[in-house]
Amino acid sequence: MRKALRGTVTAIAVLCCLGAASGTALAQSAAASAAAAANPEYQALFKRMFNNPQDMDATFKFAEVATRLGDYEAAIGALERVLFYNPNLARVKVELAQLYMRIGGKEVAQSYIDQALATPGVPPDVQAAAQQLLTSGIATAGGAPNGFNLYVYSGMRYQSNASAGPSALLNLPSQFAAAADWNYFTLANAGYTQDFGNGISAEANLFGYYAKQVKLSQYDLGIVELQAGPRIALPAIASDASIKFYGIGTASWLAEDPYYSGAGAGVSSRFTLATGRWEPSYEYRDRSFKNSELYTTSSEQSGVLQIAAINGDGTWFGQAWISRFSASWNRTDTAAFDFNSYDRITGDVGLPMPFSLNWWERRWEFVFTPTAGFSVTNYREPNPSINSAISREDREWHVGAALDTQIYQNWGVRTFVQYSETNSNLPNFAMTNFSVSFGPTLRF
Fold first, then answer.
1. Which member of 69, 190, 246, 337 lies 3.0 to 4.6 Å from 36 by CB, making a disulfide possible if both were Cys?
2. Among 223, 330, 350, which residue's Cα sits nearest to residue 283?
3. Cα(207)–Cα(393) distance, rounded to whole angstroms?
4. Rounded Cα–Cα distance for residues 348 and 374 (Å)
C-alpha cells in the first residue's frame, strides 16, 4: 500500500504542474479572442459577415478590426474565406502571411508569400511587399529572436492533503493519514523553433519542475523533459495545417533520489476546424522506475505508457475556451505486477475571461479562468497486498480557477486554486485535496 500511495502522490503532483503550465499558455492565447469578441464593432461586423458570407466589404472590415484588436486567428479565418471565393488576390495572401508571422506560423507565412509572388498579374507594390517579407520578416517572425520563447512560474503552494492520504484510515497506521503541507516550486517551459524553408521547421521544448516540501520531504519532486523534432506544413490540407514528429526524453526525482526516466516518441498535427484550433497527438513512452531507500518497490511500475490526446482552444458565442481530453494505457513490463497496469480517460476545460481595471492612473490587465475536469482510472488486476479479489477503480473530479495579472510588460502574478475529490472502490484510495498556489510569472 505504501508504494501505491506514494505513486499516486507523484502522479497527482506531476499532473497538477503540467496542467497549470498548459492552462496558462492556452489562456494567454485565447485572451485576445475573448476581448475582441466583446467589442461592439467586432460583433456587428461578425454578424453581418456570418449572415452573408459573400459580403466581401464586411469581411475585409472585420479582418481589419480583428487585427487591430489582436484577434489574429479571427482575421486569418476571414481573409481565408475571401480567398475561397477569389483565390487570385495576391494582396490578401500577403496580409495572411503577415498575420501568420504574428502568431508564429512561419511555415504557413512562407507558403502564402510564395503563392502571392506566383499569382498572375500581381501588382508591383504587392510584389515588393511580399519580397520585403521574404527577405526580412520571416527571419524575425514569432516575436522572439531565433524563435525562442520562455515561460517561468515560481512561488508557493499549499495542499490540504499533500501526502494523498485516504479520507478514512480504516485501521491503517497513522503515518498514512492525510497531511497538509506547503512547498516552494518553480516551473519553467522553454521552446525554440528553427525554420528551414519549404514548410519545414524544427521545434524543441524543454519542461522543468521542482517542488521542495516544507515538512514532508519524502514528497520533494523534480522532473525534466525534452521534446524535439521536425514540423512539416500541409498547405494542401489546410492553410494552417501541419504535422510534427518528435522524440521524448524524461527524468524525474522523488525525495532527491532518481524515481523514473525513459525515452519515447510522439506525433501530433495542428489545424483549424469550425470554431477552434485543434492538436491531436499520440505518444509512446518507455519508463524505467528506480528503487530507493524510501521507495523500495518503485521498479514494479516500469513499463510502457501510451497516450492519445487532443488539445483545443477557440471561441464559442463570444466566449473563449480551452480543453484537453486524453486516453492512456499503462502496461508494466512484468505480468506479476499487472496490478500497476491501468487504463485512464481524462478531460479538462477552461473558460478564459479577460478584463481590465484602472488603478492609480494605470490600466491593469487580468485573465480569470474557471476550470473543471475529471479522470476515470481502471486497474487491470487486483493488488494482493491490498485486496486480492477487487481490481482498483478510481473516479476523480476537480474544479478550480486561475487569475493571471499583468504587473509590468512580460511580468505578472498567477494565483491558482483547486479542489479535487477521488472516489474509489478501495477505501484506501478515496481522498480529497484543496490546493492554492501563487507567485510571479515571466514570459517572452
1. 69
2. 330
3. 31
4. 7
